[in-house]
Write a structure and sequence with these properties.
By secondary structure, this protein is of the alpha+beta class. The protein has helices at about 60-65, 70-75, 80-90, 105-115, 130-140, 150-155, 165-180, 185-190, 195-205, and strands at about 5-20, 25-35, 40-50, 95-100, 125-130, 190-195, 205-210, 235-240, 245-250, 255-270, 270-280. The longest helix has 15 residues, at about 165-180.
Length: about 300
């Protein structure tokens, strides 16, 4: 697999309100990681619990899901010490950090902003959203979000000895999935170099444009041609925004057919994405007549 080692990371965190963060803050309370060499063989593990400082009280969602107790975390280390130990554990060798989806990465960046005042992660030089890679290798469509446990189940990985929703065991399961699906060329191509643009891209929030007068909404994108004769369809009524898209009834005067047109404008990091859909409106079936029979 080349010279680069791989570190699979999983986090657990507690959500609470923070005056310093001016809102809701996801404070990391546990980290688990598995280190694999260039041949995808496990060589070491890392696990630490972090003592929370924003809120000593854990949310019921966290305790129900992870079974971590507040008492358990009292002997935990600080976030800063964990980060120093983790960086030392990774070492100086070129390393690709993998997480199951970008959620854990964004939470780690959130904690770096809170504790260090900047979102850059000191030891992050290369990164991969392993969920996206694994789904591609498993033939799962981009529109789906495959959970870690479900991915392991589909690949026939036994969970008997694993405590899911705990950072160490979740990272172990992720590493097992990696060993099952990895293919050298595609894997290396999916690893991203971390630079300023990487952070801009990862924090960019895709938005759906809901104002039809937005300068990015080109009227030509709202036009549809009749699938039968090719003539431009005429709009009946106004464009209305619903279900995250502009919708309108359209008609073809020549073919005497009616359609529902749907256009969505999504502003992504790469630019504007336009999705269009046209469905024919079928005429309502004739309802059978009800005949009243007089009782004699």
């Amino acid at each position: 697999m080349g010279a680069m080692q791989v570190v699979v990371v999983d986090l657990e965190w507690n959500g609470s309100y923070s005056k310093k963060a001016h809102g809701y803050f996801n404070e990391i309370i546990e980290i688990g990681a598995v280190k694999l060499d260039g041949n995808m063989q496990v060589v070491d593990e890392f696990s630490e619990q972090i003592r929370p400082v924003v809120s000593k009280k854990l949310s019921t969602i966290v305790t129900d899901l992870t079974h971590i107790s507040a008492e358990e975390l009292e002997d935990g280390t600080t976030f800063a010490k964990m980060m120093r130990r983790f960086a030392a554990w990774i070492g100086s060798e070129p390393t690709a950090i993998l997480t199951w989806s970008t959620t854990d990465l964004l939470v780690l960046m959130e904690n770096c902003r809170f504790f260090y005042g900047k979102q850059e992660i000191p030891f992050l030089g290369h990164y991969m959203d392993f969920q996206a890679y694994a789904q591609g290798r498993m033939g799962v469509s981009d529109g789906q979000q495959l959970g870690l446990a479900r991915a392991g189940e589909l690949l026939g990985i036994p969970e008997d000895s694993l405590s899911l929703h705990r950072a160490m065991d979740d990272s172990r399961l992720t590493a097992k999935i990696l060993q099952k699906v990895v293919e050298r060329t595609s894997f290396e191509a999916a690893i991203l170099s971390v630079d300023a643009e990487f952070y801009r891209r990862i924090t960019f929030k895709t938005t759906v444009i809901s104002d039809i007068d937005n300068p990015l909404v080109k009227r030509s994108e709202l036009a549809f041609d009749c699938p039968e004769c090719g003539r431009e369809l005429r709009r009946r009524g106004q464009w209305r925004f619903r279900s995250r898209a502009f919708c309108a009834e359209l008609t073809c005067r020549r073919c005497k057919k009616n359609y529902n047109g749907r256009v969505q404008f999504r502003l992504k990091y790469e630019g504007l994405e336009v999705r269009k859909k046209l469905n024919e409106k079928k005429p309502p079936e004739e309802q059978p007549q009800t005949v009243a029979i007089a009782e004699g």
